Amino acid sequence: MCNVKKIQFQLKLFRSIPEIDSFFLENLTDVYILSCEEKSGIYKIKELDEMDIQQRQKGGQPGQTQAEQPGIESKMDPRPLQPLDYKGSEKLTDRVALITGGDSGIGRAVAIAYAREGAHLAINYLKDEQSDADETKKLIEQEGVKCLLIPGDVSKEETCKELVEKTVEHFGRLNILINNSAVQYPTSNLEDISFEQWDKTFKTNMYSVFHMTKFALRHLKVGGAIINTTSVNPYKGNPQLIDYTSTKGAIVGFTRSMAANLADRGIRVNMVAPGPIWTPLIPSTFDEEKVEEFGTDTLMGRPGQPSELVGPYVLLGSDDGSYMTGQCIHVNGGQIMSS
């Protein structure tokens, strides 16, 4: 007997997990992780809630790797939890948001939540991630809003300009910019970081924020919002992600400076600092042992899910955050940080 609201299931994948007895059910576009109880051969299915997440996962994820970053979400096992049960309340009706790295992970989760709040989305991604982008587009459009897919490498200035121009050309406006794209190359010693790696990391993670913001400012008006994805790492340091952490620290300084610079223009600039979140970037940049340990050093003893980050992005992009600028919201499983 099913107790799942407004969800039509098509069973594609079945997996039982010892002692938890969970199912992975998916329809054509969505993946739902459900907890089940066996009683006389009948499975009672219920929607996954926050408590289920805590009970289901205690510890890290199964060891796995992907050949190239930023990775493909559909190849992850288990797949990240997306906010499929998020209920919008028209906080972003008819606003247009452009999200870099919006095809999977945190970007996809935010896009789904924004769609459920009534926003139209422009999603940037790399061409190799087309399958993830197509799935994200379906998830967005089924909410009755519009979605524009724009492939391109944001490490290049001309791509950043093109993203903004195509968004405005398609929708006629731009209200929210979310700078979310990033790469990372775990390296144990500074001596082993080549200039090419350092340069690539800064161009993708930091230069893109500069270029995207600069081009977006031609179109953002009073009430506009810029949200930058930084990280827990610049607040505590990371010995294996020196270049990545440096870019995220630069984003902190840039965000606060731009908040001061744009206050008179009525444009808010804020940031979200995720902790260890289960996204495609993890198996595509760490080895199996690191993946298994990922997130287990937090107070909650597990990595976070993309679905657990959407609240701050909605807050900062909507009128609910109208008195917030230059701020950082930490979502990191209990790692205590000064903001």
TrEMBL record:
Which residues lie within the region annotated Disordered? Answer: 54-79
State the Gene Ontology terms under molecular function.
oxidoreductase activity, acting on CH-OH group of donors
Tell me which InterPro entries the record gives: NAD(P)-bd_dom_sf (IPR036291), Sc_DH/Rdtase_CS (IPR020904), SDR_fam (IPR002347)
Q: Point to the regions of Polar residues compositional bias.
A: 54-68
User: Per its UniProt record, what CDD domains does this chain match?
Assistant: SDR_c1
Q: Which UniProt keywords apply?
A: Oxidoreductase
Q: Which SUPFAM superfamilies match?
A: NAD(P)-binding Rossmann-fold domains
- Record GO biological process: bile acid metabolic process
Could you tell me which Gene3D superfamilies the record lists for this protein? NAD(P)-binding Rossmann-like Domain
Supply the PANTHER family for this chain.
NADPH-DEPENDENT ALDEHYDE REDUCTASE 1, CHLOROPLASTIC (PTHR48107:SF16), NADPH-DEPENDENT ALDEHYDE REDUCTASE-LIKE PROTEIN, CHLOROPLASTIC-RELATED (PTHR48107)
> Which NCBIfam families does the annotation name?
PRK06701.1 (NF005214)
By sequence similarity, the record places it as follows: Belongs to the short-chain dehydrogenases/reductases (SDR) family.
Task: Tell me what this protein is called.
Answer: Short-chain dehydrogenase
Organism encoding this protein: Jeotgalibacillus malaysiensis
